[in-house]
Amino acid sequence: MSIDNLRRFFDVNVGKWNGAFYQFDAHGRVLQGIGTRLSVSTYGEDDLISLLQSLYIKQASSQISFVDEEDSEPEWVEYKIKETNIFTVDKYQQIGYFPEEKAFALRYQTAGMLETVLRAGVLGEDDTGEASPKNLKIPSRKPSIVCENCLYSLEGNGRVRAFHIMDPKGVLDTLLIFHEKQGSLVPLTYSSADTDIVNDDRIAPLLGRWEGRSVTKRSGVYGATLAEADTVVLLDKDSSDQLILDNISTKSGTRTTVHWTGSANNNLLQFDGGYEMTLLPGGMYMGYPSDIGKIVNELDSFHLEFCWMESPGKRQRLVRTYDSAGLAVSSTYFFETKV
């Protein structure tokens, strides 16, 4: 990444972000909801500038699954995130950044932050090491992949950061969402009661024809190239409720179509070939392979996806593609409208 783009990446992150953190399982069930604050600043000059981030987690006062925003005098636990600079951005974070769209994807080096969030926000002062509260799931200490995709609101100053956590075997461990805004509080709007929401409530807005444009940036050893394409996505159900998904991309007059069929298990969509999508509240979904280990053994590439439909008929997507060695090959940003 050039120093100019790095500065632009720093600029969109700097500030004080109030947030709501959620942990989901593969079926889109809310496991935890925790209040967070993120303080982001820079230090240094010219090529030596660095980004500093401190995450503050609203500490639970007892063993409860959800932290009440009205708790009296809540305590906040600080976690310092590894700094980002010109020396770490390609080697460690492997950032794919889209300056115009203010979207980015990056690699996390440790799951320590995730464990801290959950332990402080759920266990709090009652962390005795004994029986955990209901729904507490601590991510693996040695995940095979921790991928962050971030999309900024097209209608305000908010953003959503989505984390795929894959366990050491390459199978989904957990899905995490930070919904953040600058200047205003973000209430905890999703709860375990959302498990009553059936598949049709979350999949219906996604069905139909979506048209848009994609921008792909290759990274790392693959070179900093850029490619644009026109895209069409068709998602429908047939008379037997089988899912039919077509992804069509047209670049320089060449058209490529990827055709999948699949089924819906409540809010988990499972497609032929081992790809899955978890439908989340708030117009979001996250896609991932069912078994990355198997794909890597077959020397194939794979991708992780995050989609945010902020308002009906309009959505953004980020797709992070990896090679068989687990290196980030590229990041692709999509903007699509329903027609």
From TrEMBL:
SUPFAM superfamilies xref list: Lipocalins
Record domain Biogenesis factor required for ATP synthase 1-like C-terminal: where: 203-339
Domain DUF3598 residues, every copy: 4-183
GO terms (BP aspect): chloroplast fission
Family matches, as PANTHER family: CELL DIVISION TOPOLOGICAL SPECIFICITY FACTOR HOMOLOG, CHLOROPLASTIC, NMDA RECEPTOR SUBUNIT EPSILON-1, PUTATIVE (DUF3598)-RELATED
Protein name (record): Uncharacterized protein
Record organism: Oryza brachyantha
